[in-house]
Amino acid sequence: MLCKFGIQIDSMLQLFVQCPWVLNMKFPKNLQKSVDFLTQIGMEAFDIARVVSSCPEILGASSCQSAAIVLSTMNLSAARLCNIIKDDPMQFGTLVSKKKIAAVTKIDSFYLGEKAEFLLKIGFIENSDDMVKAMSHFRGRGDQLQERLDCLVDAGLDYEDACSMIKVAPFILNMSVSMIKKKISYILNDIGYTLESVVAFPAIFGYSLEKMKLRFMMYKWLTENGVKIKPTNKNKVNKSMVALSTIMACSDVRFVKQFVNLHPGGLDQWQRLKNCSTIQ
User: What's the per-residue H, E or C state across 15-59?
Assistant: First the structure.
């Protein structure tokens, strides 16, 4: 069944070594149900194959809930859920599976050793409390974690800076490579910030693209309509720009009070942006 989705023999062998429980009779049944679920929410065959090949151990780990129940519980449209899973296939285990993946996934000593080796390489101290926490926090094989780190470096970040960011915001390595690339591209190309700004505020990766777009589109509208927003001393990288943390690291209530209300038409524009289909 795995071959059907384009998974190579060597990748399957590695999967069997790292997650021997996939040889359980329930695995193919669970995997098929997961594929059926993806079909029901409108995912194209090409994208289904990509999702399955990226994390078959997640899709086959547990039986999944029905599409109707998931969509109702999460208050999401099928198209929105489809996009979430396409952007980050690991979300399937959190949003769709009946059981917590961490509770049903048995990771053998080889897998843990591979992950430990990666953590030591990026500067964690062996057997330290931080390393123990990181071992339980990071999802994925050692090579997958390395691939996500490489993605940061390929974007232009210094290796040491990338490692320091991961220590501050370890959840970055739980994101898919495609999502990391999308967020970096948006920050650098769409809103014009620098890699140094990203290093200064690695928590930016913890916000969804939708939330980033909403906040910065509102900020742009305000500045284009005569509102002068003075940069704070938070932005030590580029003092002429408002720091990423200033825009993102506050609640919606505070953002409205601190920025949106600076313009008489701010609240109306804020609501229009929130209702805009390109953001939701």
Answer: HHHHCHHHHCCHHHHHHHHHHHHHHHCCCCHHHHHHHHHHCHHHH
Question: 237, 239, 236, 242: which is closest to 262 by C-alpha?
Answer: 242
The pair of structure tokens assigned to 216 is: 């910065």
Total-model pTM: 0.58
pLDDT, tens digit, for every residue of 183-213?
Answer: 999 999 999 999 999 999 999 999 999 999 9
- For residue 189, how many C-alpha atoms fall within 13 Å in the half-sphere facing its CB? 7
The answer to whether residues 162 and 146 touch, using CB atoms and an 8 Å cutoff, is: no
List the one residue out of 92, 100, 46 whose CA is nearest residue 67: 92
Which of 93, 126, 119, 86 has its CA nearest to residue 19?
93
DSSP 61: T
Extract the tokens encoding 277.
Answer: 């289909």
* Residue 200 CB contacts under 8 Å (≥ 6 apart), including other chains: 235, 236, 237, 243, 244, 245
- Greatest extent of the chain over all pairs of C-alpha atoms, in Å: 64
d(CA 219, CA 88): 27
Is residue 163 within 8 A of residue 122, CB to CB? The reply is yes
